[in-house]
Amino acid sequence: MTNNKQQTAVDWLQVEIDNKDMGEIPMWLYEFIEQAKEMEKEQMQHWFGLGMHLVEGRLWKPIDKFEENFNETYGGNK
């Protein structure tokens, strides 16, 4: 059986931090990671909802303007 579970960007970051030999990692960092995971989940729910609007034919925002919509919602590349 294959594991097709994909890794989010925050999951990737946590694995990278865990794999570094930096001594003891402060608990506050893991608290920030958990907060980031929640934020990431909310963002995914937003974009999933956008996709559902498109599937139902109610064009809330055209999918071909993804980059523009993403930058408007999340502030673009930082």
Write the layout of secondary structure elements.
Layout: H1 9-19, H2 27-55, H3 66-74
Helix pairs in contact: 1-2
How does this structure look, described?
- There is one protein chain.
- With 78 residues, the chain is mainly α.
- The protein has a domain at 36-78.
- 63% of the residues lie in helices and 0% in strands.
How much helix, percentage-wise, in residues?
55-70%
Q: Indicate the overall shape.
A: elongated
Figure out the total of helices: 3
- The proportion of strand residues reads under 5%
Helix and strand sequence: HHH
Largest sheet: none
Kindly name the structural category: mainly alpha
Summarize the structure.
The chain is mostly helical.
Tag the structure with descriptive keywords.
elongated; mainly alpha; 78 residues
